[in-house]
Amino acid sequence: MSAPTALIADDEPLLRERLRAHLARLWPELLIVAEARNGREAIELFETHLPRVAFLDVHMPGLNGIDAARSIARRAEIVFVTAHEHYAVQAFEHGAIDYVVKPFDEARLADSVARLKARLAAPPSTSLPGIEAVLDKLAAELKLRGGGEGRKYLQWIRASVASSVRLIPVEQIAFLRSDEKYTLVAWEGGEALIRRPIRELADELDPDSFAQIHRSVIVNLRQVAQVDRGFNDTAEVRLKGRREVLPVSRSFLHVFRQM
Fold it and tell me: Which of 7, 93, 142, 247 could be stapled to 51 by a disulfide with Cβ–Cβ 3.0 to 4.6 Å?
């Protein structure tokens, strides 16, 4: 039987190191196959390694742990890592998700490890009743308690168009799509390539208006006309007044389940 695998996502390297050290003592068979610095990276690394367990910090820059859990849930066991116990207690009480509190207590972590081992040893099940509702409640609680309070999001994107430099208001942007070293910005007035990675832009755009729908595509939700479901948990997005059809990968389908 293959060794169990796990991903750790936390924006603080020291805390990732401490959790890894605790797990090495409590669960030496567990292989940590990836470490992420934010929720977006956690999703990308999850798709690459497909670990059985994901330890997700609730508070991370850009895409937080709760949003990352929406993509990962039902395909892995989720354990929230948080310094604010009230967030995770709600999920734990529903039995859908486990949690550990920072600073780490080995006795509490040992309990989580025991539960994880039992779940991984049980027959596979696709039924995690109420997990979406639990995540919705946690997201609302996080927002209510100021999870993104005071955050200033990007208002303009600077792009070279012909011989001039344009300042593009973000509300006019229809979508952004990565193209190797560049990112294509499509807005009401045209298109331009900029030398900024889409991953960096994703963390600077207001998540109430923009959503990543593919590892290479971000869309302005206000510009979405319709979403067409495809095969194998994929979809396509059609925009208002535009011909482009944008892909939605399995990891980001949850964006439209919430709408």
Answer: 7
pLDDT digits (tens, 9 = 90+) for 35-70: 999 999 999 999 999 999 999 998 888 788 988 999
Cα 22 to Cα 186: distance, rounded to the nearest angstrom: 47
Give the integer Cα–Cα distance in Å for 119 and 30. Answer: 14
Rounded distance, CA 10 to CA 36, Å?
Answer: 6
* Per-residue burial over 118-146, b = 16 or more CB atoms within 10 Å of its CB, e = otherwise: eeeeeeeeeebeebbebbebbbebbeeee
- Amino acid 253: pLDDT: 87
Q: Please state, rounded to an integer, the average pLDDT across all residues of the chain.
A: 86
Q: Which of 218, 214, 164 is nearest to 187 (CA)?
A: 218
Whole-prediction pTM: 0.71
Interacting residues of 241 by C-beta distance below 8 A, sequence separation 6+: none
Retrieve residue 157's tokens: 């994107």
Contact assessment for residue 79 and residue 144, using Cβ atoms and an 8 Å cutoff: no
* 161-198 residue pLDDT tens: 878 888 999 999 999 999 778 999 999 889 999 999 88
Q: Which residue has the tokens 């354990």?
A: 79
Q: Give the span between the Cα atoms of 40 and 65, in whole angstroms.
A: 9
The rounded distance, in Å, linking the Cα atoms of 128 and 46 is: 19
- Rounded CA-CA distance 8/20 in Å is 8
